[in-house]
Amino acid sequence: MARPRTVRGRQRMYERNINRVRQRNSEYASVLSDPKSRFQSTSSATTDKDNIKTYLERPYDNAEVIAATMREAYIKNGVISKVLDYYQSIPTYNYSIYPVLGNKQYQLENNLQQDYIDVAYGLNQYNIPFFASYFFKMTLIEGATFWYTIQDNTGIGYLKFPIEWCRISSLENGVYRYRLDMSKIKAEVVDSLPTEIQNAYKDYQSQSGLDDTTKWYNNKWYYLSDNAMAFTFDQNALFNGGIAISPFVSVLADSLSLDKAKDNVEIKDKLDTLRLIHSKIPVNSDGVPTINVKTAKIFDDQMRSRLPNGVIAVTSPSNVTNIPLTGSGNAGAYDTINKGMEQLFYDLGTSSGLFGSATTSSNIVKESVKKDANWVYTNFYPMIENYYNFVMTQIKTKSKIPWNIKFIRESNFTLKDDITNFKDQLAFGGSRMNYLAACGFNPIEIVSQLQFEQQVLDIDSLMVVKPTSNTISSKDSANGGSGNKTIKNPVRGQIGRPKTDNPTDDTDRLDGGA
């Protein structure tokens, strides 16, 4: 007969389970660091303009090379890197959440308050301001990015797969799902991968179950679960075999032209500073040198050894008196660079005046910022909202009412005006939560910080309004104001505007608060 477990035995088993979970979580953390670059893209970038033009003729057949070239251009080309960083910094990534009530009747008072806290806390673990900006930047560069969610009791992490390993397979409720090429995975990294991928790799190696079309495609592509998601701005990916390209691929040819123009400037500078010294070998009346070649070489070597940098010696019997090289390079090399930069900014769709170039009006820069922000609101926000809406369906709530997220349409470059717009909406019954979100409060902060300030710190009694012409009455002025007397707050801990101009401790509030 089996021995019944004691309370201490159950506690030891629980502790062992916790230790195993912590060990597994630490393994996931080491995967994310990837010290051996095992998840690095293997495609090589091209630096030849003719090759780029060839690749762009059939972009979806060369998506991996184009993505690698974009990554290299982001590192090497200052214009491309600064513009992509600029796009990444446009949104504030502030967000608000709300219940989707539908056409049913719900009890909104009790359950939804706890549901809001549960959903806000669960969403806070996803560290949206950090990861959303990373999703945005990498998708701009590569055209499509493929992620796998790793979750434990401390938070959320993401494993990123190379573009060569993955293909977008479907669009489910606005979220892109993808399949993974098991032939690209090496045996040395399998133990570091999530359990789902480990099991799929074992099936691929044993060739078992590959005929299941709900899980496999073409005997090597495995359809990952809902823990996997992809991001892309190329909506044609579903019609091009699950392959996507960056919206900025058109800049690659012009960026290489700009690099070539910069090389021409270096050649021109070298020619402008180059000087030649001609040492003539004496000849007789018949034009035959009067000294032998060996002696002439000794004189030539002695002269070359004593010349400074930028001066070249030439020894010959010819009559060469002056060889000026100043201005012999491309006189319009700098103009070529300026025109190349203008074309590059034009391809990127961003005003060059925003980055210090000459402009005839500051309004051009302002309108350019608004245009770029609208592009983000139109293309990035709906995609990222769909993903986090799915995430919130995985958070259990008591009432089981679905919740949605809304990223606040505001830009870091027009933040003051955007917050003012939300503030003005409050006068016409607008959302306070959207206003607080626009000011930088995430949903859990709205509950945690504001409730803590009011109920724990009693911050209204600490931050007493100072007497001004707007806060003191004519009676107070007639008595000479407050003078040096210490003013005690007679309505400490109470909220709302009093019904009378002379409130006391038991004065009723307009909103019924106490």
Short description:
With 514 residues, the chain is an alpha+beta fold. The chain has a domain at 255-355. The protein has 17 helices and eleven strands.
Set down the secondary structure blueprint.
Blueprint lengths: L6 H27 L15 H9 L5 H14 L1 H12 L5 E5 L11 H14 L3 H15 L1 E9 L2 E7 L4 E7 L2 E7 L5 H4 L4 H12 L9 E2 L3 E3 L4 E5 L18 H23 L1 E6 L12 H12 L6 E6 L16 H16 L13 H32 L9 E5 L7 H12 L5 H7 L4 H14 L2 H4 L11 H5 L36
Parallel strand pairs: 9-10
Antiparallel strand pairs: 1-11, 2-3, 2-8, 4-5, 5-7, 6-7
Helix pairs in contact: 2-9, 3-4, 4-6, 9-11, 13-14
Protein name: Portal protein
Organism: Limosilactobacillus mucosae LM1
Keywords: Plasmid
Q: How many strands in all? A: 11
Roughly what fraction of the amino acids lie in strands?
5-15%
Question: Uncertain regions: pLDDT < 50 for 5+ in a row?
Answer: 25-31, 481-487
Number of helical stretches of at least 4 residues: 17
| End-to-end distance | 64 Å
- Find the structural class using helix and strand composition: alpha+beta
Q: In words, what does this structure look like?
A:
There is one protein chain. This protein is α+β, with helices and mostly antiparallel strands and 514 residues long. The chain has a domain at 255-355. The protein is 45% helix and 12% strand. The chain is built from 17 helices and eleven strands. Strand 2 (144-152) and strand 3 (155-161) form a beta hairpin.
Features:
plasmid, three-stranded antiparallel beta sheet, 514 residues, extended
